[in-house]
Amino acid sequence: MQLAIGLQKIILTPIGTMLIGMRGRVDMIGARGMVRMILADRDSTGSKITTRISIDCGKLFDGEKPELREINWVWKIIQESPVRGFIDLTEASLMKSILAISNY
User: Fold this and answer.
1) Taking a C-beta distance cutoff of 8 angstroms, is the pair 29, 67 a contact?
2) Domain annotation covers residue 57
C-alpha cells in the first residue's frame, strides 16, 4: 500500500504471517527511514526468547509445564531506540511514526 502526503510517499509492505512470536509484520518505509509494525500478544512489551531442554520423550528438564493461555493479538510498533521494545499502535503512535520516516 502506498500513502501520499503532499510530495512524500510512505510505502507499507506486508512481510509475513509465519514469524516467531507474532502473527504478522508490516514494514512502513519513507524517505527518512523505516518503522516495523507487528501483530503480537497484547501483553508483550518486547522480544522474548525462551529455550527449554527436553529429555526422555519430551519430559521437561526443569520440571516446569509451559503456561497455556489465550493470546489477544494486537498491532504494535517496534521501537528501535533508545531501548528496543514494543509500543501499542494507536492513532497518535502511527502519526508520530509517519512523521518520523517522512521529510516533515
Assistant:
1) no
2) no
Any domain includes 98: no
- For residue 62 the three cell numbers come to 526443569
In the beta sheet, which residues pair with residue 24? Answer: 39
Tell me whether residue 9 is in a domain: yes
27 and 19 in contact (C-beta within 8 Å)?
no
Sign of CA dihedral 99, 25, 86, 69: positive
Convert the pLDDT of each residue in 26-71 to its tens digit.
999 999 999 999 999 888 877 666 666 666 665 555 556 667 778 8
pLDDT computed for residue 39 by the predictor: 93
Question: Is residue 94's pLDDT more than 90?
Answer: yes
Task: Give the burial class of 77: count Cβ atoms within 10 A of its Cβ; 0-12 exposed, 13-18 middle, 19 or more buried.
Answer: buried
Q: How many domains does the chain have?
A: 1
**Calculated CA dihedral for residues 78, 72, 65, 59, nearest 10 degrees:** -80
